[in-house]
Design a protein that fits this description.
Layout (H helix, E strand, L loop, with lengths): L28 H4 L35 H14 L20 H7 L2 H4 L11 H18 L3 E3 L5 H18 L8 E5 L5 H8 L3 E5 L9 H7 L4 E7 L11 H10 L3 E5 L19 E3 L2 H4 L14 E3 L11 E5 L2 E5 L20 H37 L4 E2 L9 E4 L10 H10 L6 E2 L9 E3 L7 H19 L4 H4 L12 H6 L13
Parallel strand pairs: 2-3, 2-4, 4-5, 5-6
Antiparallel strand pairs: 1-7, 6-7, 8-9, 10-11, 11-13, 12-13
Helix pairs in contact: 3-11, 5-11, 6-7, 11-13
Bound molecules: pyridoxal-5'-phosphate.
The site of pyridoxal-5'-phosphate (PLP) has 13 residues, from helix 6.
């Protein structure tokens, strides 16, 4: 064995500098910067008369000044601490695709899209409006739905848009007082019950059956004339296709309610299933989960909502209409011959995301999109099949785009799902989604996506199997202390969430 690996070389010693390996530790910018330092030469401010009156700042702003290399290194260091889709396999479940093709970025930067302003006269942005119409065409064709609302800026925002359309339809029927209940499965993403509550409905939870799907007997008991809607995710958050979905839609429709489908997992079925045929009335599509636009810190989201014929009249302002040779964005209710429920954002939606999503669709074509769905499902099932040897799948049978395990395989080892996930960090992997969905004990939700090669999946699976084996033979140190190789060790995440320190204060320093 290599000398460096011998017993007395403990690898979790703190270093003198605080840096670990070639990852740099750095103090806060407020601690290193000084107001006197500046990365650029700015001309002196000419004398001017303040127009802020009593609002005028009297003391210096106190921002830390940095030289150009200091500022640059700060951001490069931050980027190196960030696990990224451009760095390695990202197993987070319930996130779906994680691929931002460079072609999308190139197109989104074209000046004709990047340099226009939403307040420009519509006659000067016909190309952008045509792009929005093109995207709408792809979204309605892929889903078979009647209309699409482009303004929502995230999946959760789309849920709100769809549920507001449902609310408007119920109000028009004069049933807002009596149709109060929205059925939401226990396994649902937390945004579903939150949205229903935000729209003024009461939430009624639907339990899952032993196969991780909606319990039809309970559903039949719960259906009644006070049902406003059901909010159902398909494929659901257990990574399973809801086999009874058409019966569910029929039951809800017969009771006079609407079917809201959470379409966050559309990437598993696009090109394979026509959403309209499932009886859906409204469904959001997270462009960042199905059509390759950046997630989270990577940029603003977009969550367009497709609507059935029964709901399309209530879509929010502004919306696009064909106008002779060109396109018009209908901005005001007075201009509209529909019954929009209102307006949910200042402008028309996230143009940059529309460009990226359409670029992805057009570069794949309909057969390519179908193949992306098939490959996502294949990859998840490959993980499920190989990991079944040492881990415990939460449900029997095949999965869709994500593989769900529970913590039975860790029973008696003293290792928890959290420990297991932290040990993955030492192995160079971002952890999978943990403890979600809530209906599965110690859940580990793994979603590889369609972009991973077999080699990359095998490396990842070998790591999971190796860790599972280490837990079983009692190598608990590997888990209890993990992560030991990351720049920071195990953090008090609860305290960080409950008592976040959001403001640096000079006298408290780095406290
Ligand atoms: C991600 C997700 C959402 C919320 O989407 P955001 O774009 O993050 O607001 C809702 N439902 C499910 C099932 C999801 O996976």
């Amino acid at each position: 064995m290599d000398k460096a690996m011998s017993k007395n070389c403990t690898r979790d010693k703190e270093t003198v500098s605080g840096s670990r390996g070639l990852l740099q530790q750095e103090p806060l910018l407020n601690e290193v910067g000084s107001a006197e330092k500046c990365g650029v030469d700015l001309p002196p401010v000419p004398p001017h008369k303040a127009r802020l009156g009593a609002m005028e700042r009297e003391a210096a702003l106190g921002l830390p000044g940095l030289s150009e290399p200091e500022a640059l290194r700060h951001y490069v260091r931050l980027s190196q601490r960030n696990y990224a889709i451009d760095l390695g396999l990202y197993p987070l479940g319930s996130c779906t695709m994680k691929h931002n093709p460079r072609l999308n970025e190139k197109l989104a930067r074209l000046p004709g899209f990047a340099d226009i302003h939403p307040l420009q006269p519509q006659s000067t942005v016909q190309g952008a409006l045509a792009l929005m119409a093109g995207l709408s065409h792809w979204l309605t064709t892929l889903t078979g739905m009647d209309a699409v609302a482009l303004p929502p800026k995230a999946g959760a925002h789309g849920e709100w848009c769809g549920m507001m359309c449902i609310r408007a339809a119920i109000a028009e029927r004069g049933e807002l007082e009596t149709r109060r209940r929205v059925l939401v499965p226990e396994s649902a993403h937390g945004t579903n019950p939150a949205t229903a509550a935000e729209c003024g409905f009461e939430i009624d939870q639907l339990p899952a059956n032993a196969s991780g799907r909606v319990d039809m007997d309970v559903l039949r008991q719960k259906i009644g004339p006070d049902i406003a809607a059901i909010m159902l995710t398909n494929p659901n958050t257990c990574g399973l296709f809801e086999r009874d979905i058409c019966d569910i839609a029929d039951l809800v429709h017969e009771a006079g309610g609407y079917f809201y489908c959470d379409g966050a997992n559309l990437n598993a079925i696009m090109g394979k299933v026509r959403v309209r045929d499932l009886g859906v009335d409204a469904m959001h599509i997270n462009l960042h989960k199905t059509f390759s636009t950046p997630h989270g810190g990577g940029g603003p989201g977009a969550g367009p909502v497709v609507l059935s014929r029964r709901l399309s009249a209530y879509a929010p302002l502004p919306y696009l209409v064909r106008d002779g040779e060109g396109w018009t964005l209908v901005e005001h209710e007075a201009q509209s011959d529909a019954r929009p429920f209102g307006r949910m954002s200042a402008f028309h939606g996230q143009m940059g995301m529309f460009v990226r999503a359409l670029a992805y669709m057009m570069s794949h074509g309909n057969d390519g999109l179908r193949q992306a769905a098939e490959d996502a499902v294949l990859n998840a099932n490959y993980i499920l099949a190989r990991c079944t040897e040492a881990m415990s799948p939460a449900f029997d049978g095949h999965c869709m785009h994500e593989a769900l395990f529970d913590d039975r395989f860790l029973k008696g080892t003293g290792v928890t799902t959290l420990d297991f996930a932290k040990a993955m960090i030492d192995e160079g992997y971002h952890p999978m989604t943990m403890y979600f969905p809530l209906v599965v004990h110690g859940a580990m939700l793994i979603e590889p996506t369609e972009t991973e090669s077999k080699e990359s999946l095998d490396r990842f699976i070998d790591t999971l199997l190796g860790l599972a084996k280490a837990a079983k033979v009692g190598e608990t140190d590997r888990f209890a202390c993990a992560p030991v190789l990351a720049p920071l060790r195990r953090l008090d995440e609860t305290r960080a969430a409950r008592q976040p320190v959001l403001r640096w204060q000079e006298d408290e320093g780095a406290a």
